[in-house]
Predict the 3D structure of the following.
Amino acid sequence: MEKFSVTLPLTGEYLTTVRLTTGGLCSLVGFNVDESEDYKVCVTESLLILKRNGFTTASIEFTVGEALACRVVGVEKGGEKEDGFEDEISRSLLSALLGKVEFVKDGENIVGVVFEG
């Protein structure tokens, strides 16, 4: 197994870069186009959850093997915490696309998302 990780600011231009990188990693493990799109959505939604929970920076660690595992963790706080309604939608979407997803919490706040495709 190989690991690939990156730490990034949670701003729009970096989210696009993460989607492209995620697509490349999905290709490495043999995902088809639909699986790749679903996985990219899951990574993006995970980052948006962290952003809405007040994080300004996040770390993503991919583990590439027979499957593609992903761990998204908030690193730096300082942003404004937003209403949880959109988080509910994101959590439902992740659960529907992945089946098994772990939301790491510190009290009521989500501080990380872990999943495998």
Observations:
- The chain has a mean pLDDT of 92.
- The first helix runs from residue 12 to 28.
